[in-house]
Amino acid sequence: MKTLSKEQLTAYALEELSANERAKFDALLAASPEDQEYAEETREFCQLLQQTIGGNAAPAALTAEQKEAIAKTIPFAANSAPKKRWPIYAFGTAAAAAVAVWLAMPYFSKPESSLVADNKPSMGPAMPPSQPVEVSILFKRGQAYRDLGLFEEAGKSFNEILAIDPNNIDARRQLEETEHELTTYLAATEDHTRARALQEVDQLWSSPVPRTGAPATRAVSGPQTEPAGNEQGNQIAGNADALPVATAPLAMKAKVDSKEVRFEGDASVLAKHHIASGQKAPIAPAPDSVGVGEMHAETKLFADVASSATPAPISEYAAIDSLGGERSLAGRSRGGVSGDGFGDGVGMRGKAPAASLSVAQGLESENARYYRVAGESRTEPLAQQPDAPTDESYVAPAENPYRSVAAEPLSTFSIDVDTASYANVRRFLNMGQRPPAEAVRLEELVNYFRYDYPAPAEGKPCSITADLVSCPWNENHRLARVGLKARTDEKRPNANLVFLLDVSGSMNEPNKLPLVKKSLHLLVDKLTENDRVSIVVYAGASGLVLPPTHGENKKAILGAIDNLQPGGSTNGASGITLAYEEARKAFIKEGVNRVILATDGDFNVGISDRDGLQSLIEKEAKSGVFLSVIGYGMGNLKDSTMEVLADKGNGNYAYIDSLGEARKVLAEEMSSTLVTVAKDVKVQIDFNPAKVRSYRLLGYENRMLAKEDFNNDKKDAGEMGAGHTVTALYEIIPTDAPLDVPAVDPSKYQTPVAAKEAPPVVNNLPDSMTVKVRYKAPDADVSQLMELPVIDQKKPMAEASGDTKFATAVAGYALLLKGSNQAGNLNWAMVRELAKAGKGADAEGYRGEFMGLVDKAEGLVR
Amino acid sequence: MSSLPPNLSTHWVIAALERFERPLVSFAHNLCGDWEQARDAVQDTFLRLSKSGRPPEDGDVEKLAPWLFTTCRHRIIDWQRKNKRLAPMDTLTLEALPETSAGPDSALEAKDTASHIRELIANLPSQQREVIKLKFETGLSYKEIAAATGVSTGTVGWLIHTAVQALRTSWMATQS
User: Fold this and answer.
1) Which of A148, A470, A786, A858 has the smallest CB count inside 10 Å?
2) Mutate which of A342, A431, A521, A661 to test chain B, going by most B C-beta atoms within 10 A?
3) Optimal mutation site among B74, B118, B127, interface A, most CBs of chain A within 10 A
4) B78 and A107 in contact by Cβ < 8 A?
5) Residue B44 touches chain A, beta carbons under 8 Å
C-alpha cells in the first residue's frame, strides 16, 4: 500500500503531476481525508502566493518582428528545400547574416573580428566524404588553440572546418564556446585595466586633510612612537594600515589565480563604482555563469547597503577581511551550457544586513575584494571634496608605550566617560566591517559598562578602588585595574535642556533624524514640571523651534519634535550661539543647564573653524552651561570633532546607532549624562620603582596629561556624571619579572652613564603604586585630592572579581581590534572566556550583547 | 507566423520558439526587470539556437530547455555588464527590503498581506527563494525550473515543497 508523501501532495496541489500519476494519486487520495485537507490547504496557499507575487504573465512574448527575424535564420539542410524557394531564402540568409554580425558587434570592437563566420547555407552539392581527416586535424588544432587561450586562432581553425563541412556540429559547438570565452576574456581584461585606473583615482580619495592642518602621515602603532604631550594638537589623521602584512598575501593570491583576478576586477570595479557614486546599484555578478539565486542574493545585498544611509566608508580604512581569500568560487562553473543554477558558494541570505552575519559576511567579502585591489599604500592626502562619498574622520594616536618607572614614575591622565567609540565600533561590526583602528578607543569600550564599585564616602563625589591581578596574555606581567565610581544622586536636580538639532539635508536618513526624534521622545518622557526644554535647529537659517517650555507640557514639546523636517545646509555656529542664549534665558540655579547637540557631524556653513567653536564652548561652559554631543549616523561622522567639543563643553559624547542605545544614553543613564558630580577629574598614578619596573596604560591615548598638569587647576579634564564609573587598566612589568622588554643599546661613542637600575628607594613601603585623584565640585574652581595606596596581593586572574575579568575582556577585545602588537598571547578565545566568567547578572543585557560582538569581531579580524 | 511556409513551421527551432517563448521571456524579465531587454535576450537566444544548427535528440524540444535558459541568462548578464551597470532590481527584491528605521514600534506596525508574504519569501534560503519566484512569479513548471536552474526535477519538487510549507507555517502563525 503506497502512502502519499507530503512532497507529492504539494506537487499535486501545484498540478505538477502527469496525467497517469494524477489518476493513481486521486485513488490514493480518496482514501485519506487528512491528505485531502493537506493538499487543499496547500493549494489555497499557493493560490495566495500566486496572487501576491505573480502577475507578469501577460506581455511575456516576443514581438512579431523578432519572431520573423528568428525564422529567417533557420538554415536549410542541403536537400530539404525545393529549388524554387531558394530566392526568398537567399535574401533571408543575407539578412540573417547581417543580423548575426550586428548582434555580435557589442562583443567585439571590430565587426570583422567576429568569430562567427557568415553562415551561408550550402545549397550546392553535398560535402565530399574525403574530407574527414583534414577536419579532424583542424579540429584538434582548434581545440589546442582554445586551451592555450589563443581564441582568434581557434576561431579561425573552426571556421575552416565549417568552410569544408558546414554541418559539422562539433565545430560549431566549439566555435560557440570559444566565442564565449573570448567575450569573457575581453571583458575581464577591460575591467582589469579599468580597475587599475580607478584604483589610482581612489588613492587620491584615501586620506582627508586633517583639521589641524598637520600633514597626514601613516599612524604607526607600536612602542617606537613616543606620543609626547599627546593632546589634541598632536593629531595624526592618517590611515593606520593596521595589518599591512596581512594584505599582501591576499593580494598575491589574487594575482596568481587568474580566475580570481577576473572576478575581482569585475566586482571590485563595480563595487567602487557603486559605492563611490552612492547609487542603489546591484552588482552584476561574475562574467561566468552565476546562479540565478546568487545573482539575486547579491543584488539584494547591495540594495540593502545602499538603502541604509550613505554607503559604508571606504578608502580610509585598511579593512582586512578574513573571508575574501577563502570565499569559494566552487559554485561558479565556467562558461558553457552546464551552468549550475545555484552557485551558492557564498551562502548569502536575504536578510537585513544589520541582523544577519552571513549577509554581512557576503557584503564584507565584496568590500574586501574591493579593498584588496585598492589596498596599495596610500600617501598624499587630498583636500576634502565637498561631495566625498564618505567623510568620516578619526584621530589616530599611537598606543601608549611601556614607560620605565625609573625614568617616569608618574602616569597622569584625564578621565573619560564618553561611550561613543563602543557604539561606533558596534555599528561597524553589525555591518560586517572591521572597524578602523583609529575608531577604537579602548577606554570608551571598557567604560561603556557599569561596574559594581563601592559607593563613595559621605561628602566625596567619587570612590577609588584598585586591584592587581595576573595578566592573562603575558604570564610575567600584571594588570592593575583602577576604578572610580561617582555618587548617585537620589534626586536629579532640575534640568534646563536646550536641544540643538542638526536638521540639514544630510540628516534625512532613517538612522539620523527619525532616530533623533525617537531618542528625544524617550528623554522627554522622564522630564518633570521643574525642568525646562527648548529646541533650536540649525539648517541654513538657525531657528528657535520651541521656546523654553516646562517639562510637563509634553504635548507641546513632542509636537515640536515631531514637526522637525530635514533640509538645507548646516550652520553649526550660529545655531550654537542661539542655543546658548536660550539656555541662559532659562537658567536654573543649582540645576543642570545643558545644551545637547545632536548631529551627524555636519558643520559646513559658517564657523567651521574648530578653534573658534571650541573657545565659544569653553567660555559657555565656564558660565555654567555645559555641552553634550550625541553623534548619529555614519558616513559623515566627525568623531574627532565631536569628542573635542564635548570635552571643552564639560559634557560627554555618545554615539547613538539604535533606539536601544538611545534608551541607554538618554533614558536609563540620563542622570549620568546630565548631572555632573565632579568636574575636571584627573588621575595620577605614582609607581614604586622597588616593585614595578615599567607600566603601560591601556587606552586613554588622547587623554594623557603631563605630570605638571595634575596639580594645575587651570588644566581642563573630564567630567563624571552621577553614577558613572571610570575604569583604567595598566599592564605592569614587576621588578621580579624576567627582562623581556628590549633594552636600549648604549651609544658606542659615549662612555655609558652608570645604568639607573632603580633609584634609591626612599622608604620601604609595600605598595606597588598610589592612585591619586583630583576633582572639582561642579561649581568650584579649586580641586581637591584623594589618594589610595595599592598593595599587590599577588592575586591570579581566577580570583579576580567578575567586573575585573569583564573589564579585561573588553580591553582585550579593543586591543585585538586595534591590531595591537603588544598583546602577548592574547586571542579571541581568551577574550570570550574572560567575558563569560565576568558576565554576572547582566540585568540590562549589555554584557551579553558584548559577547555577540566578540563573535562578530573574531570573524572579521584575523 | 502565418507568412511562413508549412514545412518550416514544424521546424524544430520554431517548435522550440512556440514552446519556450513565454517562459523564457518571463524568466528573462525576472532577471533584469525590463521587458525590452528580456525580449531582446530571448530573441538572441533563439538566434543562437538556430545558428548552432543542433536539433535536439529524437526531436524532443523539451530537451533544449536547459540550454535555452542558460543561454538566456548569459545574454542578460553579458548585456548588463556591457551596457548598463545599473540594472533595476526586480520588484520582488525591492519590496522585500526590510525597513531600516530603528524602533520597535515600526516592527509592530501592521503589514498588509502582500508585503508580509514578500518579506517571508525574502527570508527564505536563496535556493528556495529562487524556485518559489520561478514557480509563482515567472510561472514555470517544475521541468522548466529544473532546466533553468540546472538541478533535477526531483530537487525542484523538494525545494518547492519545503519552501511552500515553510511559508504556509509562518503565514499561519501570524494570522492567528
Assistant:
1) A148
2) A342
3) B74
4) yes
5) yes
Lowest pLDDT segment from A182-196, A212-226, A322-336, A663-677: A322-336
Q: Which residues of B fall within a CB distance of 8 Å from A115?
A: none
- How would you classify residue A76: left for phi > 0, otherwise alpha for psi between -120 and 50, otherwise beta? beta
Interchain contact B126–A (C-beta under 8 A): yes
Are A284 and B77 inside 8 Å of each other by CB?
A: yes
A86 at the B interface (CB within 8 A)?
A: no
Strands A592-599 and A626-632: parallel
CA distance B175 to chain A (A): 13
CB pair distance less than 8 Å for B92 and A53? yes
pLDDT digits (tens, 9 = 90+) for A648-706: 888 888 888 888 888 888 877 777 777 788 888 999 999 988 889 899 999 998 889 99
Q: Identify the CA nearest to A109 among candidates B48, B82, B94.
A: B82
Q: How far, rounded to the nearest angstrom, does the alpha carbon of residue A658 sit from its chain's CA centroid?
A: 15
| Confidence band of A58 (pLDDT split at 50, 70, 90) | low
pLDDT (average), residues A438-457:
90
B104 touches chain A (CB under 8 A): yes
Please give the Cα distance from A588 to A532 (Å, whole number): 9
Task: Measure the CA–CA gap between B146 and A270, rounded to whole angstroms.
Answer: 31
Which of these, A584, A588, A586, A574, lies nearest to A616 by C-alpha position? A574
Which residue from B minimizes the CA distance to A70? B47
Mutate to test the interface with A, among B136, B142, B143 (most CBs of A within 10 A): B136
Q: Flag whether pLDDT at A239 surpasses 60.
A: no
* Fold for the domain defined by A430-489+677-740+766-860: Immunoglobulin-like (2.60.40)
DSSP state of A750: S
- The CATH topology of domain A495-674 is Rossmann fold (3.40.50)
A61 or B105, higher pLDDT: A61
* DSSP β-bridge partners for residue A533: A497, A549
Which domains does chain B possess? 1-89 (no CATH), 107-176 (1.10.10.10)
CA distance A481 to A808: 9
Q: What mean pLDDT is reported for chain A? A: 70
Q: Determine whether the interchain pair A300/B122 forms a contact, defined as Cβ–Cβ distance below 8 Å.
A: yes
Which one of A7, A350, A355 has the shortest CB-CB distance to B96? A350
Q: Evaluate whether A212 touches A233 at the Cβ level (below 8 Å).
A: yes
In chain A, what are the domain boundaries?
Answer: 6-53, 74-126, 206-216+240-374, 430-489+677-740+766-860, 495-674
Report, in angstroms and rounded to the nearest whole number, the Rg of chain A calculated over CA atoms. Answer: 35
* Inter-chain CB proximity A6 and B161 less than 8 Å: yes
End-to-end CA distance of chain A: 58
Give the CA distances from residue B2 to residues A68, A178, B11, B39, in Å, rounded to whole numbers and listed in that order.
Answer: 10, 36, 14, 21
Task: Please give the Cα distance from A506 to A601 (Å, whole number).
Answer: 9
Digit-coded pLDDT (tens) for A297-330: 333 333 333 333 333 333 333 333 333 333 333 3
The most confident of A350-364, A458-472, B25-39, B116-130, by mean pLDDT: A458-472
Q: How far is A72 from chain B (nearest CA, A)?
A: 9
Neighbours of B110 (CB within 10 A): 5
Please state, in angstroms and rounded to a whole number, the distance separating the CA atoms of residues A539 and A523: 23
> Residue A374 pLDDT > 70, yes or no?
no
